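Thread amino acids onto this structure.
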């Protein structure tokens, strides 16, 4: 696998490749049962913490050898396996599969929010895990943009601003993803709906993955991860420009994926107005 030490624009550095985990006796490796593919700053860390807490999912019991002979536990939800390519490469599926050992009867997977965003990832993901179930968590695109820019301290770098804007074009990303995966293999979650009804949406997630439905743990509503941090305050002209910039993509998204509740997204107010005018 090529080195991930490539320095990117905006001073970002991709993570180094992870060493595959030890495989306990009686376990097997293979393609992941599920992969979360989006979207950044939409509550995916929170949802992963709930999902990985299910007894039917392999959680933190794996150990990964680290530099210097040290042993570290499973390195969180994000593997970023495809980040370093920047192109569609001919990957040996076994290179990816070795990161996903599990015992009989349990599921395993990962959730790297940028997989949906990078154009080169869906074709490679389909090659190495064609039968995986895909998870996507979406958030009002303007709110997602504000959270995304706040992550970098409100950095006004135009390249960063453009990158954060593009990440909120969900319809464009989903249509590309569905060129490689059947719609039945995709579950789209809505962050705002998960906040309003975490237990119900968690049951929906378990059903989609074929996991037994269990009572929601007491900490279900306790959000974790950076999505609960403060967001950048957008002045109204900027927010209005963002709403206009997202308008066409957002309207296509809501039309093609009616399971999304437009009333939960302030950015979709004009979409609801247009719908009302049709009758």
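Threaded sequence (279 positions):
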């Amino acid at each position: 696998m090529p080195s991930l030490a490539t320095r990117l624009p905006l001073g970002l550095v991709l993570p180094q490749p992870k060493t595959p985990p030890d495989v306990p006796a009686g376990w097997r490796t293979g393609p992941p049962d599920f992969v979360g593919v989006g979207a950044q700053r939409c509550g995916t860390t929170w949802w992963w913490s709930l999902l990985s807490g299910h007894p039917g999912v392999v959680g933190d019991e794996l150990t990964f050898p680290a530099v210097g002979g040290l042993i570290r536990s499973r390195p969180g939800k994000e593997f970023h396996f495809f980040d370093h390519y920047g192109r569609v490469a001919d990957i040996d599926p076994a290179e990816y599969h070795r990161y996903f050992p599990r015992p009989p009867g349990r599921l395993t997977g990962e959730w790297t929010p940028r997989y949906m965003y990078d154009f080169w990832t869906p074709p490679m993901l389909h090659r190495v895990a064609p039968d995986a179930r895909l998870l996507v968590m979406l958030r009002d695109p303007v709110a997602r943009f504000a959270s995304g820019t706040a992550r970098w301290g409100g950095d006004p770098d135009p390249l960063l601003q453009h990158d954060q804007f593009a990440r909120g074009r969900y319809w464009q990303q989903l249509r590309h993803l569905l060129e490689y995966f059947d719609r039945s293999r995709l579950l789209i979650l809505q962050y705002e709906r998960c906040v309003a009804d975490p237990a119900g949406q968690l049951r929906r997630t378990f059903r989609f993955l074929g996991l037994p439905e269990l009572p929601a743990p007491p900490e279900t509503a306790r959000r974790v991860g950076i999505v609960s941090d403060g967001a950048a305050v957008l002045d109204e002209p900027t927010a209005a420009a963002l709403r206009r910039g997202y308008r066409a993509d957002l309207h296509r998204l809501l039309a093609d994926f009616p399971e999304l509740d437009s009333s939960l997204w302030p950015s979709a107010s004009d979409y609801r107005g247009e719908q009302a005018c049709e009758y």
